[in-house]
Amino acid sequence: MVLAERAGLSELISAKVAINESRVRSAAVNPAGKLTSIIAGMVAGAECIDDLEVIRSGGMPRLFAQVYAPATLGQFLREFTQGHGLQLASVARAHLVNLVEHAALLPGIEGQAYVDIDSLLRPVFGQAKQGASDGHTKIAGRQVLRKGLSPLATTISTREGAPVIAGIRLRAGRAGSGRGAASMLAQAINTARAAGATGDILARGDSAYRNSAVINACIKAGARFSFVLTNNATVNRAIASIPEHAWTPVHYPGAVVDPDTGELISDAPLAEVAFTNNPVTARLIVRRVRDQTRLEELFPVWRYHPFFTNSLESTAEADITHRRHSHQPTACPRARCDATTPDRRRPRPAGPAATPPDPAPTRALALGHTVDHPVAQDIPTGDRPTRAPLTPTTHRTGLTGDPSGTAGQTSRDHTPAPH
Asked: Interhelix angle for 9-16 vs 82-103, to 10°?
């Protein structure tokens, strides 16, 4: 939170977030203080409104002063509309730009930046979850329908820097993967430019984002693109036109996960051909892999993995760069709380997820869970004094080097909540 305040979080919230009309007069007061309280609670592990009590429990009052109760924060969140969500998205983008300056995020962004886009499905439980609907996801290699929400996320990364979230938009579970992708990518590219990306920016994604709206948005924003193409009749005809001598064996610097079988492969021939897609003409780069289930055939049987790009890299380098784009997990690793779930305490995951053995993989990215839609409550309200934004204080043991350990004492008496 110290770093967030140093990067101007409270100032950005005060300047960009405004609730002009509210059902409860005191609910819209001091959005900066309430939002920083919510953020601090989520950093401490809160996953629903009741969990925000963590910032008032135990020794937390020694670290943070002037925090809000979960009921007050729930009233505040209930005043939010879609417009307020867009205001918060604007705060997040501006805050990311400030963090790049203050925390040395995204090293090397001035030379080459990567903007990745992907959707995921977060399962929900219960019939009262707002916006939840059945959406397609893949579990154990099988396409299934699962009830949940489908966020669309964009990330920014560099060759030396791990991906950071540039934007995330919550959608219904049944929303198509490419819905709203063009505007999301344009915002992420503009954020990368504001963060210092003066060189090339490459937008990457899977086949859900290879439509003309997304590609034209990348071109209009001054970025290059690299998107997977599905093997339809037009693409197959283009692949069939590639002569046999054009296939170049490529030895990858590390094993690549085969998207069809899940097996690791290290060698695969590559070729490229000019291709027109709605109506942009660029490079169709194809990787072909021998079908390991048909090794005794008289003629080799190949499986083809094409992608469409206007990158200036060589064929082999463009293929390796494309296949390092970020993928967000499609299933939630932990149970989620719902407005109708009586028990709001969930188990934590046993351990971190395994990562593919790529010598230069895209670094792991943790996406925080959203605060659940609050339960409708009848809470007596009244005029409450405006509180200052959440500010860290010093621990009794001297977080800021105070040998006496008394610099962080707060005047607010607080009894730790029972555990």
From this structure: 150
- Asked if residues 213 and 125 have their Cβ atoms less than 8 Å apart, the reply is no
pLDDT of residue 153: 94
The predicted pLDDT at position 13 comes to 95
In the sheet with 224-228, reading across from the earlier edge strand, the strands are 164-169, 152-157, 112-119, 200-205, 224-228, 302-309, 280-290, 264-277, 248-257
Q: Comparing 142 with 93, which gets the higher pLDDT?
A: 93
Q: DSSP letter string over 113-131?
A: EEEEEEE--EE--SS--TT
CA proximity to 212, closest of 236, 189, 182: 182
Q: Is 398 left (phi over 0), alpha (psi -120 to 50) or beta?
A: left
Long-range contact set of residues 93-97: C-beta below 8 Å, sequence gap at least 24: 93/166, 93/167, 93/187, 93/191, 93/194, 94/12, 94/16, 95/4, 95/7, 95/8, 95/9, 95/12, 96/156, 96/164, 96/165, 96/166, 96/191, 96/195, 97/191, 97/194, 97/195
Write the CA distances from 192 to 50, 197, 326, integer angstroms: 36, 6, 16
Lowest mean pLDDT among 130-144, 279-293, 304-318, 331-345: 331-345
Mean pLDDT within 166-186: 91
What's phi and psi for 3, nearest 5 deg? -65, -40
Buried b (16+ CB within 10 A) or exposed e, 231-248: eeeebeebbeebeeeebe
Question: pLDDT at residue 413 above 80?
Answer: no
Given this model, what pLDDT does residue 264 score?
Answer: 60
Task: Give residue-wise pLDDT tens across range 268-299.
Answer: 889 999 999 878 999 999 999 887 777 677 78
